[in-house]
Amino acid sequence: MGDDPVHGHIIAAQLRGSCMYVHMFRYTCGVLRNGFTVRIDDDSGDMRRRQQGGKDPMEQGAAHNGAGVLAGHAFGVRFHGQQGGDCGHGVARVLAKHSRTLVRYIQQKRGMIRCGGRAVKASYGSSVHTRSVVISLAGRIMESLKAGIASRGHVVGSFVNTGSPICAEIMARAGFDFLAVDAEHSPVDVPQTFSLIQAIASGNPACAPLVRLPHTGYAEIKRYMDAGAVGVIAPMVNTRAQAEEVVAAVKYPPFGRRGVGYCRANGYGTAIAEGVAADNDATFVCVQAEHVDAVNNLDEIIAVPGVDAVFIGPYDLSASMGLTAQFDHPDVIAAISRIHTTCQAKGIISGIHVVQPDPAAVARYIRDGYGFIACGLDITFLANACSDGMTRIRQGIADAG
C-alpha cells in the first residue's frame, strides 16, 4: 500500500475472516469482528498502533467520531471473523483519530462508499464502517470481475436456471467468478432474481451476479438492474440498434436512460448520486451473438460504446444456420471463429457457453483467448452429479455382491 499523499500515513486493513455480508436498514455502532489486523504507520514506518481481538469499553465512545465511526451492523459491509465475537474498540479510537487520513487513503481504492457525508472508496477487505455507509455493489464486484480478466486473462462462471436460492448460494461458495441468473430459459422473474442475487452475495460477495435477460426491452432491463445485478447478458442482439438499446437501459444518463429510483442497487435510496456515478463505470454489458445476422453485423454491434463483451450462443447460432447442434460443421466453426477473432481485434471480451461441464473444453477456450466463459448451469451440474452418484452406488452394490 502506498503513502497517503497528504498525511504521510500508511493504513492497512487485513481481513482474516470468512464472509462479508451486506446488511440493510440496521445500525448500531462501534464494533469490528474478530480476526482483523489494523495497522497505522507514520512516515518513518514505525507502527503507531496494532490491535487485534479484545474489548475496551472505555474506548467505545470514540466510535462516534465523524468519519472514523465504525458500524459493525451498519447498512454496508459487515465482516465475520472465523471465531466470531466483537473486538477492538481501541481500533475504533485509532481510526477515529486518523479518520481524515483513512478517508483520503480509501478514496484511492475500489468501490464507492458514502462516509460521514463524503464520497470515499473502499474495497472488499476494508474494515471501515461509518454512520452513513452506502456501498456500490456493482463497483466492488465488477472491479473483482475485471481484475480476474486482467490478471488471469479470463473468468469462469455459470448459470442459475432452477430459481433456487440454495443452488445459487452453493454455486457462489464453489468459487465461480460470476453467476448469471437465467431469466431467458427459465420461469425466473424479477422477484425471484432479487432473492437469487442476495443468495449469491451470501455465498460469495466477490461473485458477480449477472442476469441473462428474457429480452432486450428497456423496462425489463431496468428492473433487473435495480434488483442488484451488476451486469446483463442480452440475448439475440443482432443489430447495432439493439445493442444501443441494451446499453441505454443499463446505464444512467448521460450515457443511457436508465431511470433513477430507490432500489437495492443504490442502497434503497441512500446512495443515489454516488450509486449512479459508480454504476455507470462498473456495470457490465455483454451481448449475445447467437444468430447469423449478429455475425454479419458484428463490427457495428461491438462499436457501440458500453458493450464490454460478446457471448457466443452456439446452439442458437447453429440453429439459425440450419445446422442445429452441429458444432463440428465447418460453417459453424467458421462463424464462431469469426466472432472470436473480430472481438479480439477490437479489444472486446469474447465469451462462450460450455453447456455440459467439461473442464477440457473450458481449458481449450481459455488457451484460445476467450475471456468470459460460462461452464454448465445448475441443472446440468445437478443432473450429472445425480447420474454419476447413482452409477457409483450401483457399481458399489455390484462389487459387494
UniProtKB/TrEMBL annotation:
The keyword Coiled coil does not apply. Keywords: Lyase, Metal-binding. GO terms for cellular component: cytoplasm. Gene3D superfamilies: Phosphoenolpyruvate-binding domains. One of its GO terms (molecular function) is metal ion binding. The keyword Lyase applies. SUPFAM superfamilies: Phosphoenolpyruvate/pyruvate domain. Residues 42-63 are annotated as: Disordered. Residues 157-385 form the HpcH/HpaI aldolase/citrate lyase domain. It comes from the Bacteria. InterPro entries: Aldolase/citrate-lyase_domain, HpcH-HpaI_aldolase, Pyrv/PenolPyrv_kinase-like_dom, Pyrv_kinase-like_dom_sf. Belongs to the HpcH/HpaI aldolase family. This is HpcH/HpaI aldolase/citrate lyase domain-containing protein. It comes from Oceanidesulfovibrio marinus.
